[in-house]
Amino acid sequence: MLKHENYKELIWALAKTDFKLRYHGSVLGYLWALLKPLLTFAVMNFVFSSMFNPRGTGMSTYSLQLLVALMMFYFFSEGTTAGMSSLLSKAQLVTKIYVPRWTIIIASTINATLIFLMNLVVIVFFFALKGFMPSIPAILLFLMFSIFIYIIVLSFSLITAPLYVKFRDLAMIWEVLLMIILYASPIIYPLVTLPAAYHKFILLNPLAFIIHFTKESLINNHFASPSQYVVFVAIVFGAFALSIFSYRKFIPKVAEEI
Question: What residue numbers bound the domain in which 128 lies?
């Protein structure tokens, strides 16, 4: 039985092992953590920059907004996908050794966080390259929103990781849903391109809220209203509370179902 003070070391050891194994044997190694979102950004920026920001109306800011939005989406995508499959991918650890299941789930989400931290260097580089300096409140909001994305990722993982052991179709379903989320959130396009009547419904999606107001704050120094933040925080922590309840309900049978 592990003592509580050893949980932190266990989680960090699992996260580092996952990170190393992910890129083991590849020629470019850890560079793939940067290249995958960068290549996607390059293609989307080439295709959509003239559509959503015609020449003369701020193409450079569109590229910065797209880069930030894609990096945050990839954090969400990588984290939720890894978290969902975490228990099944560590089946031997679950069935043969007593390890608190939540430590495995958290370790997988931290692995995605390490990749996101690497991508932050790319974001800083591009902002410096464009000579664009966001305000201090906007930078602090970006950091706070990054933490909220992690909370969302962890909530999703706590719910789906025990369920994925039994329902393997969840991976296919989530892959399709991620594509829907990508195009349903204001990542490629600015929110203003949609009818104003839809904005409040789109912003009920926590990821859409984060991405929209991250772009708005970093580029335009525009922030959400206090009431919007209250609704956002209530949704995120409500989902987190639900995830804990769901985890406690389904986790006892995981070892048997693997």
Answer: 8-257
Structural domain count of the chain: 1
Q: Domain for residue 65, yes or no?
A: yes
Return the ∠ at Cα 183 (arms to 148 and 88), rounded to 5°.
60
pTM: 0.88
| Residue 1 domain flag | no
Blockwise average pLDDT, block size 10, the chain, 258 residues: 67 80 61 74 76 54 91 94 91 78 91 87 89 94 97 97 92 95 92 90 95 94 95 97 95 79
| Residue 2 falls inside a structural domain | no
What pLDDT, on a 0 to 100 scale, did the predictor assign at position 69? 94
Under 8 Å between Cβ of 108 and 16: no
